[in-house]
Amino acid sequence: MSAAPPDGTLDEGATTPGDSVVRTTGLTKRYGALTAVDAVDLDVRAGDVYGFLGANGSGKTTTVRCLLGLVLPTSGRVELLGRAMPRAAAEVLPRVGALVEGPAAYGHLSGRANLELSDASGRRSGGEGGRRARRRRADEALDRVGLGAVGRRPVRAYSLGMRQRLGLAAALMRRPRLLVLDEPTNGLDPQGIREIRELLLELNRTGTTVFLSSHLLAEVEQLCTRIGLLDRGRLVLEERLDVLQAPTGRVAVETTDAEGADRAVTLLGDAVVSRTGVRLLVSGADPATVTERLVGAGVRVQAVGPERRSLEQVVEEHTRARAAQEVPT
Ligand SMILES: Nc1ncnc2c1ncn2[C@@H]1O[C@H](COP(=O)(O)OP(=O)(O)OP(=O)(O)O)[C@@H](O)[C@H]1O
């Protein structure tokens, strides 16, 4: 993380890729006998689109609330943009956009008026410049999230998805260096999910680090560069997605029909690790060699390629690994 200037103000300059943007050390939150977040060490770096994964109740929202200073940890440390939270909240939070647990908005006011209000109240958030400038910023933000046409309607007439977009627009108006989103696509239809994904990727390209919590593996797989996996309050995995999904060394083969798969099993013998219908997993060979052998023997092949694990498999392995460790002996 870039060092804070000696006068104690927040460095407004861009973070360098790889700098730590969110760091927690031993972050723990207990509610009575329940440990909702258990000694979590997170390390989110500048430039990441970080997917914070975990089943319902695993502690994602509690962690996010601790990050933003909305809840005080029982123990452990939180740093945002290199500054200790919640002590530096007043300096750090204007540089952080957040969308947590359904955006709050005044129902009787229009989306645009809500944005103008939050702009006027946001300190050091670009809220300066008078009414006309605020209105222009609000209109720009509404356009970016696809609410340009309905920005003048009262928020009480918005669907959940529209409210979610409005919350994102409010977060964007801070021109944040870090955007923290808790389940951002809740209530959105597939088209809305695609639009939000595009928007987050565009923001990331222009220098915003994105931290989003989600239980939707497909969403995280399409969007994120690094993931953290929470399992019953513990961080059981933190890694780059391309590392987790690197080729396993085995070859995945799909024949056009069951007869072809039968013949492939006979031809490849012990190299076949498993078969599911017309799909085989083959070890000890590369895709080109496997293709040559099968096609040479007249087996029709639909697809051949290096095996990569899906995020679902990765998550399953790590949660199962932990469950196995806990089996009493
Ligand atoms: N204020 C609270 N008081 C008591 N228990 C709480 C409180 N907030 C959360 N918990 C408990 O802490 C655990 C973690 O909850 P949390 O909401 O952080 O999980 P989550 O991963 O965000 O789940 P979800 O996806 O369902 O929101 C749960 O068992 C929850 O019941």
Automatic annotation (TrEMBL):
Basic and acidic residues: compositionally biased ranges: 121-137
Top-level lineage group: Bacteria
rRNA-binding among keywords: no
Residue ranges of domain ABC transporter in the record: 22-257
UniProt keywords, alphabetically: ATP-binding, Nucleotide-binding, Transport
Entry-linked InterPro entries: AAA+_ATPase, ABC_transporter-like_ATP-bd, ABC_transporter-like_CS, P-loop_NTPase
Membrane-spanning intervals of the chain: none
Alphabetized GO MF terms: ATP binding; ATP hydrolysis activity
Short name of one Pfam family: ABC_tran
Region Disordered, annotated ranges: 1-21, 117-137
Similarity comment: family membership: Belongs to the ABC transporter superfamily.
Protein name: ABC-2 type transport system ATP-binding protein
Organism of origin: Terracoccus luteus
Taxonomic lineage: Bacteria, Bacillati, Actinomycetota, Actinomycetes, Micrococcales
